# Entry
Amino acid sequence: MDDDISGTQPKYKRIVLKLSGEVLRNPENGDPIGGNILQNICAEIKTIAELGVEIGLVIGGGNIFRGLTGSTERGIDRTTGDFMGMLATVINGLAFMDCLEKMGVNVRVQSAIPMEDVAEPFIFRRAVRHLEKGRVVIFAGGTGNPYFSTDTAAALRASEIDAEVLLKATKVDGVYDKDPVKHADAKKYNELTFMDALKERLNVMDSTAFSLCMDNKLPILVFNMNEPGSVLKAVLGNTIGTLIHA
# Structure
């Protein structure tokens, strides 16, 4: 990024950034991981890391295999399909690790599924220590259990490490009262309380993830990852996306 942000004070000290695996897909040729897309996202992560922000990263696996949908479409048992999806998040996590390290960022990958030759096991205190030392920690392997989404994994890890906010980066620019693709008059919310989101039955995250955030008073910021500089704007507290809070 070209702008000089030296001396800039971020709003948040410790965050969890949840990325949909789909944001990595190359729209031109359908490759699961677009090299330029990966590099652009990593460049943004590097920028906020250099501001002193402690970053936990959770990446979905939908660009490679989506547990529930993939299982249904292929006739695979749900539990097996969910484990396949969790392994896909490890593949994405390793891609981010490699890209970030080549940019000079210190990274650790922790997996909820034991695979010592590939990643550290998730250990809460070790994760916090990495963050305190300025390392980006990639939380891979979901929760380690089937029937839970990566949204839930992100909410869980954010709650465990006492993150100040869960940044949910997607392909849409916030939360709407109805599908903006299907309805031209869809209204976007800039800010919502958890109770408002429940009353309006808004699809912010899956119910388990949303409940975790609400119970732990963990704010959720939903924004468009494809907007250049969006992660930095979110961390600086600029108006972007939709903020859901207690």
User: Anything to note?
Assistant: Helices lie at 35-49, 67-74, 78-102, 124-132, 150-160, 194-199, 207-215, 230-236. The longest strand covers residues 14-19.
